[in-house]
């Protein structure tokens, strides 16, 4: 959910301060602070060798547009206040600065009334200035991006109207046009390419909430279980507010909306074709979620009969910190030569902070076999005693899980009990289904370790795995290849050896308030010829003692200890040991 908290000093200077920060972090850039214009330091040379391009609009869409100033994309950007168009005087100042008398200049804007009017007036003022100064009419062209298909005004007609909004597809327009300009193409060719991308790019967005505006706050708020389809990048309402869908359902519906939209159908008559897919973070979507959305968007595009031959995913055009995403499809030409030329432009590196340059490599063949490692042949076998031990340990973990979870909620992240139960359940199910080589203790422990890794994860999971790996190796070294040759003392010696293995990879030791405080005394007692009952008593005392220890390892280090509670990991391990000992008595 969006937050109304911001890192801010003064809302009135936020845009200018942010642009200063951008320039400081990107030494190839310069800033006209008065006009909020960002341009490259080698601008004079750029104007002499190519068509120049600039784009602009209200701030709050970063990295658009200042983050895309650099070789291969924009020659300059001009910024207004947050969500407000720059004035025509600002735009005129930018145009004067970047105009190339020899090659001309292309102005790229998004289809919003303020942008169209202010940029349009600036272009006309510039033309008048040149003519009135006795100069030839300047080579300036302007294109308007209107890729939004989330909200299509039914009252628009062939004579015009408000039209569709400009969204993340704008970035694809000046990426491709900018690469063509950098190659030395004419203004006419650059504009033609820009026009093609505009007329063949279609975008829809959705958000989980509106974005908070610095100095103003949230203009409106959706419920915790609501999402809005078609929300604009300035918090404009979309066309549908509904309950949050699972990601696969949502993304599939967004892609379907694009391909079923009238603008898409007008531009693309065929039921199939090649496309560029751009998945855009609207500002506050986590990277892990973006990865999922990108996967789902590519799958949904293929399901729609289209081939996403290029996939771009990242933060390109935001609505401040809006928790949402947008999906754009650019339909490529049917003509192979034209298609390859456009893709080559999309692939060209751009040297700016906002664009993610994609590396391309030929597939040199599969390495799957190497990744699999050596083949191991496991022969599952039943063993009544092992099965009894596993079932008892599982049952005790089930009973103790709420207690372990509570302890971890106080001092950790609250997942210790659930993770332990997940591991115990997986081992129990493998035993019940005769999937373990229980007639071979070292092999059984190695297999259990693999099961634990898959089922548990996290720090506690890998600690158990390392210990079990070491224990399997120790039993093999001791030539304990069947249960009949194992005594309590041998188990203890093997466990101490397994602890040595574990100690190679963790600095946790007895007294550090971890599960080691229960595991080490259990192993040591067995190794010194103690009984199982004595070993369990030592483990219980070790776990209880953690209540009075200062945490030195694990997440509890960062939490102030307010209660005298035992360590969740140690208590969880004791629940396993109690089940094992109970079955063996």
Q: Could you characterize the architecture of this molecule?
A:
With 585 residues, the protein is an alpha/beta fold. The protein is 46% helix and 13% strand. The chain has 19 helices and 12 strands. It has helices at residues 14-25, 43-49, 88-98, 113-132, 169-182, 187-199, 247-260, 262-267, 287-303, 336-347, 368-372, 384-411, 416-432, 441-455, 458-477, 488-503, 516-527, 532-545, 568-584, and strands at 29-32, 37-40, 52-59, 76-82, 105-110, 140-145, 201-207, 226-229, 240-243, 273-281, 306-314, 324-331. The strands form 2 sheets. The protein has a 6-stranded mixed β-sheet, with helices on both faces. A 6-stranded mixed β-sheet has the order 9-8-7-12-10-11. Strand 10 (273-281), helix 9 (287-303) and strand 11 (306-314) form a beta-alpha-beta unit. Helix 13 (416-432) crosses helix 14 and helix 16 crosses helix 17. It is elongated, with a radius of gyration of 32 Å.
